[in-house]
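Example 9 (inverse folding). The structure is encoded as follows.
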C-alpha cells in the first residue's frame, strides 16, 4: 500500500494543513464546551434530587409511618411523590437501611444497595451512583420525626438517561455553532489558499527554495551592484558588488540610505530624491551610473554600474583625439614652415634661414624642458606637457608658475593626475583664448595645487554647485556624461582630508585651490 504523498504546491499544503488545524480546533473547542455543560447538568440533577428528598423528608406523616415501619403507607406516599416529580425512584428506609418503599415492590424489605450511613447520621448527600436501577443522580437526607429523632433515610434518584437527553438537546445547538465556525474557517482557508496560489504562481515548495538559492547566487555573482529598498527607505538587500562600489558596511541591511552614505547626489539618487535614467554619481574615486526602479510594494531596486575604468579610457581617448588634432595642426604648420624655409633658401638668405630653424625647433622643446625641471614627478610632468600642447593649438597659453616645484615623491600619482588633469581641463574648457597658470608647491608632506585662468570666472552662487555630480554648464557629448570631473576632485580631496576652494584669481578669472595633506613621501620646503 502506497503512503499518501504530502502535496508539493504551496497553496495545497496550506489548504490541507489549515483544514486539519481548523477541524481539530473546532473539535477541541466543542469538547471543552460540552464537558463543563455535562458537569453542570449532573450538579443540577443532584441538586434537584436533593430538593425532592428534602421535601419528602419534611412530610411528618411519612416520618411517623417509617417510625412505625408501615411500609404500605410509606410506599403509597413515596410512589405519589415519584410520579409527581418524575423521579427515577423515591426510596425510604428505616434506621437499619431496610427499604420501606421502592419502585419495584419486590425489593421492599431488602437492604439498600448503597451505604445509608451518612444520611442516618444526619448528613445530606448528593452523588452520581450506580444502584439496582442503574446510574442515577442521587440526593439523600435523614428522615426525622417532629422531635428531631432520625427514623430513617430518604433517597431520591433521577435517571442518567434524562440527564443525557438534556445534554443531547443542548449539544445540538453547540455542534451547530461549531459547524458554522468550522465552515467559516474552511471558507477563509480556501480563500487564503487561492490568494496564495495566485501570489506564488502555483509553484512547489521545493521550487521556491531552489529559486531563493538561485537568486542569491545570481545577485552575488553579477558584476553590477544592486540595492533593494523597502517602502520605508531601509536597505533590504545589497549584493557584494554594491557593498564594494558604495563602500557599505556588512551590517547595512535594515538601515536607511542616509545612515550609511554621506549627503550628496549619490544618496539622493538612491532614495529617489533625484530621478531619471542613467544618472551619474561619484563615490570616492569611482564614477557610477545609477538606475532606480520603484516596485509594487512602494520600495525600489537600484542598479549600479562602475564606469570608472570606462571614464578613464574615455578621458584618454579625448586626450588622444586632442593630441591628434594638435599633431594635424602642427603638420599643417610644419608644411608652412618648410615652405618659408625653402623660400628663404631660394632667396639666398641663408643666415635668416638658420635663425628661423633654431627658433622653431626650440620653442616646444623649451616648454617641455621647463616643465620637466619644475615638475619632477613623471606622470604630472607628462600630463602638463601634453595639456600645454593642446592648449597651444587652441590659442591658450598654459604655464607653470616660476615658484612651482613638485618632487618625484607622490604617494598616489594616479590621484594627483586626476586632480591636476580635471582642474586644467576645466580651465581650458572655460577659455576661448587666454592664459592658464598652474602652481604646485610642497609644504612638508602637504601639496598645494592652484589652477588659475583668465576666463569669465565662477559666479558666487555657483561656487558650491559646480562640485555636484552631473552639474555642468556645457552640453554633454554623446559618448559620456559631463559634470563628473570636479565632483571626482572633491571626493578625492575629501577622502585625503584636504581642502578645495574656488575664488577669484590673479588673471581675472577663477582660481581653484587644493590642499592635499600627506600627498608626498618626503619633507620638502616651499
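The amino acid assigned to each position is listed next.
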Amino acid at each position: 500500500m502506497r503512503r499518501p504523498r504530502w502535496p508539493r504546491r504551496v497553496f495545497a499544503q496550506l489548504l490541507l494543513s489549515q483544514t486539519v488545524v481548523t477541524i481539530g480546533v473546532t473539535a477541541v473547542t466543542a469538547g471543552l464546551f460540552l464537558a463543563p455543560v455535562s458537569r453542570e447538568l449532573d450538579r443540577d440533577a443532584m441538586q434537584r434530587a436533593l430538593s425532592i428528598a428534602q421535601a419528602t423528608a419534611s412530610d411528618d406523616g411519612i416520618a411517623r409511618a417509617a417510625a412505625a415501619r408501615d411500609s404500605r403507607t410509606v410506599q403509597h406516599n413515596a410512589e405519589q411523590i415519584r410520579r409527581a416529580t418524575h423521579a427515577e425512584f423515591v426510596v425510604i428506609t428505616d434506621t437499619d437501611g431496610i427499604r420501606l418503599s421502592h419502585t419495584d415492590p419486590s425489593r421492599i424489605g431488602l437492604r439498600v444497595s448503597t451505604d445509608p450511613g451518612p444520611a442516618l447520621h444526619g448528613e445530606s448527600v448528593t452523588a452520581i451512583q450506580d444502584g439496582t436501577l442503574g446510574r442515577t443522580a442521587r440526593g439523600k437526607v435523614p428522615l426525622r420525626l417532629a422531635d428531631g429523632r432520625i427514623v430513617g433515610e430518604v433517597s431520591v434518584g433521577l435517571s442518567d438517561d434524562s440527564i443525557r437527553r438534556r445534554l443531547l438537546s443542548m449539544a445540538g445547538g453547540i455542534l451547530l455553532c461549531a459547524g458554522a465556525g468550522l465552515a467559516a474557517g474552511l471558507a477563509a482557508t480556501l480563500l487564503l489558499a487561492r490568494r496564495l496560489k495566485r501570489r506564488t504562481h502555483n509553484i512547489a515548495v521545493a521550487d521556491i527554495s531552489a529559486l531563493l538559492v538561485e537568486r542569491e547566487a545570481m545577485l552575488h555573482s553579477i558584476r553590477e551592484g544592486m540595492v533593494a529598498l523597502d517602502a520605508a527607505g531601509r536597505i533590504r538587500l545589497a549584493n557584494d558588488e554594491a557593498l564594494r562600489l558604495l563602500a557599505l558596511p556588512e551590517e547595512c541591511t535594515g538601515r536607511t540610505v542616509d545612515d550609511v552614505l554621506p549627503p550628496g547626489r549619490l544618496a539622493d539618487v538612491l532614495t529617489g530624491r533625484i530621478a531619471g535614467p542613467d544618472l551619474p554619481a561619484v563615490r570616492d574615486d569611482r564614477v557610477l551610473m545609477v538606475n532606480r526602479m520603484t516596485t509594487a510594494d512602494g520600495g525600489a531596486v537600484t542598479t549600479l554600474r562602475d564606469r570608472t575604468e570606462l571614464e578613464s579610457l574615455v578621458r584618454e581617448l579625448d586626450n588622444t583625439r586632442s593630441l591628434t588634432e594638435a599633431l594635424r595642426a602642427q603638420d599643417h604648420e610644419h608644411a608652412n614652415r618648410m615652405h618659408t624655409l625653402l623660400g628663404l633658401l631660394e632667396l639666398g638668405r641663408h643666415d635668416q634661414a638658420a635663425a628661423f630653424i633654431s627658433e622653431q625647433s626650440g620653442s616646444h622643446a623649451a616648454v617641455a624642458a621647463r616643465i620637466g625641471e619644475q615638475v619632477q614627478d613623471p606622470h604630472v610632468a607628462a600630463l602638463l606637457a601634453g595639456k600645454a600642447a593642446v592648449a597651444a593649438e587652441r590659442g591658450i597659453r598654459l604655464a607653470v608658475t616660476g615658484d612651482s616645484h613638485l618632487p618625484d615623491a607622490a604617494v598616489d600619482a594616479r590621484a594627483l593626475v586626476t586632480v591636476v588633469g580635471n582642474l586644467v581641463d576645466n580651465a581650458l574648457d572655460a577659455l576661448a583664448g587666454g592664459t592658464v597658470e598652474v602652481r604646485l608647491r610642497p609644504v612638508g608632506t602637504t601639496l598645494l595645487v592652484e589652477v588659475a585662468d583668465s576666463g569669465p570666472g565662477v559666479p558666487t552662487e555657483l561656487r558650491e554647485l559646480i562640485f555636484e555630480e552631473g552639474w555642468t554648464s556645457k552640453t554633454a557629448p554623446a559618448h559620456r556624461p559631463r559634470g563628473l570631473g570636479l565632483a571626482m576632485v572633491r571626493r578625492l580631496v575629501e577622502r585625503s582630508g584636504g581642502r578645495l576652494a574656488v575664488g577669484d584669481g590673479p588673471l581675472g578669472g577663477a582660481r581653484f585651490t587644493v590642499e592635499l595633506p600627506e600627498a608626498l613621501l618626503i619633507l620638502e620646503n616651499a
